[in-house]
């Protein structure tokens, strides 16, 4: 099981003052020292946290560390991906006003555009993942689009499955977990690598992490960075690594 640490919110803190600290490269270094398998960053169209230079400096400083770039299906960012060549790109839906990525990609409704942008990125030797809800039709469409991986959106599961969150509901959490497992099985049977992410915490990742036969990678950010305020980034990543493994 691989842990990709999403460090967007280190950049959020930096951009809050448009300053140079906290240093993103040092943050990535702490995550790697703590045993993270990869670093995940989202280069948003509005550049609210990660900046173009972050992508290239991370790639240069840690050439051997798995770098996963999240991006919208737009040509301008695809060009950056093709030039910098992260190890993987995860295509996500993006709306300007959202606080974070809401809902999965509609692959079925945009199959031509998503297939074409995925091909461009794959031709540069970069693996492509599509961030989708645990929905049978979307998984079938993802396979048709020729993607290498899917990342299942765990946001709904995340909201109802952590006892500390206001919408915690055990019955609902079990239902959402089942949806994720069924979706993961289907995606695997179609030859896709299955990753998962969004809203995962030290608590609610446990039932998913038991299914090592289904999930290859978890991408987790906000909860780790929040924990790091109290215990430091290295320890926060080590703790998540222990839970995930
Ligand atoms: N995976 C994807 C595709 C995302 O868009 C995000 C949020 O940027 C994450 C994982 C990480 O989510 P969180 O910060 O809630 O752990």
TrEMBL record:
Pathway: Cofactor biosynthesis; pyridoxine 5'-phosphate biosynthesis; pyridoxine 5'-phosphate from D-erythrose 4-phosphate: step 5/5. GO terms for biological process: pyridoxine biosynthetic process. It catalyses: 3-amino-2-oxopropyl phosphate + 1-deoxy-D-xylulose 5-phosphate = pyridoxine 5'-phosphate + phosphate + 2 H2O + H(+). GO terms for cellular component: cytosol. 3-amino-2-oxopropyl phosphate binds at residues 6, 17, 199, 221-222. CDD domains: PNPsynthase (cd00003). Pfam families: PdxJ. Its EC number is 2.6.99.2. The keyword Transferase applies. GO terms for molecular function: pyridoxine 5'-phosphate synthase activity. The record marks 151 as: Transition state stabilizer. Keywords: Cytoplasm, Pyridoxine biosynthesis, Transferase. It is found in: Cytoplasm. 1-deoxy-D-xylulose 5-phosphate binds at residues 8-9, 44, 49, 100. The active site is at 42 (proton acceptor), 70 (proton acceptor), 198 (proton donor). The keyword Cytoplasm applies. HAMAP family: PdxJ (MF_00279). Catalyzes the complicated ring closure reaction between the two acyclic compounds 1-deoxy-D-xylulose-5-phosphate (DXP) and 3-amino-2-oxopropyl phosphate (1-amino-acetone-3-phosphate or AAP) to form pyridoxine 5'-phosphate (PNP) and inorganic phosphate. Homooctamer; tetramer of dimers. Belongs to the PNP synthase family. This is Pyridoxine 5'-phosphate synthase. It comes from Candidatus Termititenax dinenymphae. The lineage of its organism: Bacteria, Bacillati, Candidatus Margulisiibacteriota, Candidatus Termititenacia, Candidatus Termititenacales.
